[in-house]
Description:
This protein is an alpha/beta fold. It has one domain (2-196): 3-Layer(aba) Sandwich (Rossmann fold), CATH 3.40.50.150. The protein contains 6 helices and 7 strands, in the order αααβαβαββαβββ. It is globular, with a radius of gyration of 16 Å.
Amino acid sequence: MRHVTATLRRLYRDVDGYEIGAGQERRIERTQGSATYGEIMPAASVQLIDALELRSSDTFVDLGSGVGKLVMTAALRSKVGRAIGVELGRDRHRDAVSVLRAAEAEGVLTPGVVELRNQDILRTSLAGATVLYTCSTAFPYAFTERLAHRVGRLRRPVRFVTLQELDCDVPGFALAQVLRLDMSWARKRKVHVYAVGGP
């Protein structure tokens, strides 16, 4: 764990996602999402990735990936086949790409394992995704529910990890695990891991 967290601290020494332009905030809010920024803490990121037991056959997708810390953690800590970060904020995405390029140039990451997209999380392709995460605390519940219904329509077994507990009206979701992990705004927040069935 120490090696991964030390590497992340070094790579992100001068990078965070808290400040973005007003135009980008408006763009995010037009999707009915939230421009509010917060992130899972480095040690908690490692705990989450360990708990998910990602394999080479997995594609991990962080929906609302900010500056890319969790996808980088997945690539550094696990055997995940692909780790994809999707972020609508242009500045956050740009910073994530900068860190990724530096990590690949240093040989810390194998090129091609991490992919970063500057896209709307409700519109991005979920093809091949097996584990999807969203730090959804600031999202209106209706937005998270729309996202969950989209995941439910994939018609294959996946896991959906969210900080919001889903109401029972989202079909096909079974709560598999609840973790308590430290976030930038609070300690020991509940993280819900749902198993989503196929057809």
